[in-house]
Design a protein that fits this description.
Elements (H helix, E strand, L loop, with lengths): L3 E10 L4 E9 L2 E7 L6 E2 L4 E4 L1 E6 L2 H5 L9 H14 L2 E10 L9 H16 L6 E9 L5 H8 L5 E7 L11 H12 L3 H32 L3 E5 L4 H9 L4 E3 L4 H9 L3 E5 H6 L9 H6 L5 E3 L6 H12 L5 H6 L3 H6 L16 E7 L2 E9 L2 E2 L2
Parallel strand pairs: 1-4, 1-5, 6-7, 7-8, 8-9, 9-10, 10-11, 11-12, 12-13
Antiparallel strand pairs: 1-2, 2-3, 5-14, 14-15, 15-16
Length: about 375
């Protein structure tokens, strides 16, 4: 027997507007969306009803797997803890970012990333997770072992996205060397002399490995229909390189010029939700609010704070006059879903998956009351 649910008297955020209305769910999908309240069903008392959020780039799983330097947690337990935080933030589809390429700020190997990938796969297959999890390979192309690590996971069926990044000093995110110094000395507690040696080594590795790794990984992704993203593009030349490699998503462009060139080329421009909530970049790069005002922002990502994805939608709609709530919500639902190749989710519309979030707004901070994934309540 079919299990029909009715949610009524909700401020439903559709792809093109917000309406007071009713949603009917049947067999895990949205059967009907209608304006006006119904005499039957669950009364949401005027709360917002949003599509389940779609997260393309969260590094947060690492903080559960490696909660302290040189401490490793059980991989399955880490995935479940991460999932609980993601789902309670209103995220119903998430691409968990796994780093490819050893970086001194983590000391995590490709084999450990493979183990985390296996744990995500196993947890999903066994029904342990509230959100729908996939994998994003964040490839540090300047690292000597990047390609080797990538190949450990390239055939994992949950991989939907790979991003190409290079965090060597003097370019992209760290074009400002003082910003680079503050970040790495603060994180790794290095002396000036140690940082100089560290930086020189990273620059040598970048010169040797970055381009060949970019080309090899781009080719592998095209063969496997894995969506490609660039990361921290700062110049028009960076964007031209991304276009030549068949990249469709521009993650965290650091300048207005790079964002404009990416947008003009038809790439989806992705920025960090913490950038929106804080009112600017922690690295001193271009503001996400500025890009939104210029109509050059397509997707938001929680990056390092899962709840920031939901928080940023209301913050953006309240601080940028040119952005309405439904437009901000589209940046965390419909557009990222489409960018990752999902056609069954991302908006409240007939025939789509019943992935939805009930939200109250209190003192400008959203409160997640209920989360449904395919019609099943998970929060």
């Amino acid at each position: 027997m079919s299990d029909e649910q009715i949610l009524t008297n909700a401020r439903i955020v559709l792809a093109d507007r917000t309406v007071l209305g009713t949603v009917v769910i049947l067999d895990g999908k949205i059967k009907e969306v209608a304006e006006g309240a119904s005499a039957n069903g669950t009364n949401l008392n005027g709360d917002f009803l949003l599509p389940g959020l779609v997260e393309l780039h969260t590094d947060h799983l690492e903080s559960h797997y490696a909660p302290r330097p040189r401490v490793r947690w059980n991989a399955m337990a880490a995935v479940q803890a991460h999932d609980a935080q993601v789902a309670s933030s209103g995220i119903t589809t998430v691409l968990d970012a796994l780093r490819m390429g050893l970086d001194e700020d983590s000391e995590m190997t490709g084999e450990e990333m493979r183990a985390l990938g296996d744990a995500i796969h196993s947890a999903k297959e066994s029904g342990r997770l509230r959100a729908d999890h996939y994998i994003h390979l964040r490839c540090e192309v300047s690292a000597p072992d990047c390609l080797e690590s990538f190949r450990l996971l390239q055939d994992e069926p949950l991989v939907r996205l790979a991003s190409l990044m290079d965090h060597s000093p003097g370019q992209r995110q760290f074009a400002d060397l003082e910003s680079y110094k503050r970040y790495y000395q603060g994180k790794l507690k290095m002396s000036d002399e140690a940082l100089e040696v560290f930086s020189a080594r990273r620059n040598r590795d970048s010169e040797r490995y970055s381009r060949p790794h970019r080309l090899a990984i781009a080719a592998e992704c095209h063969d496997r229909t894995i969506v490609l993203a660039s990361h921290d593009d700062a110049t028009v030349a960076h964007v031209d390189e991304a276009i030549s490699q068949g990249i469709h998503v521009a993650e965290f462009p650091t300048t207005m010029d790079a964002a404009r060139a990416s947008h003009k080329a038809g790439m989806a421009v992705l920025m960090g939700a913490p950038n929106v909530v804080r009112g600017g970049s922690h690295s001193g790069n271009v503001s996400a609010r500025e890009l939104a005002e210029a109509k050059m922002l397509d997707i938001l990502s929680s990056d390092y704070v899962p709840f920031s994805l939901l928080h940023s939608t209301f913050a953006l709609a309240s601080t940028v006059p040119t952005v309405e709530l439904h437009e901000a919500v589209r940046m965390v639902s419909k557009t990222p879903a489409e960018a990752a190749g999902f056609t069954d989710r991302g908006e409240i519309a007939e025939g789509r998956r019943a992935d939805m979030v009930r939200v109250q707004l209190a003192d400008d901070v959203p409160v997640v009351r209920t989360v449904w994934r395919e019609g099943n309540r998970v929060i």
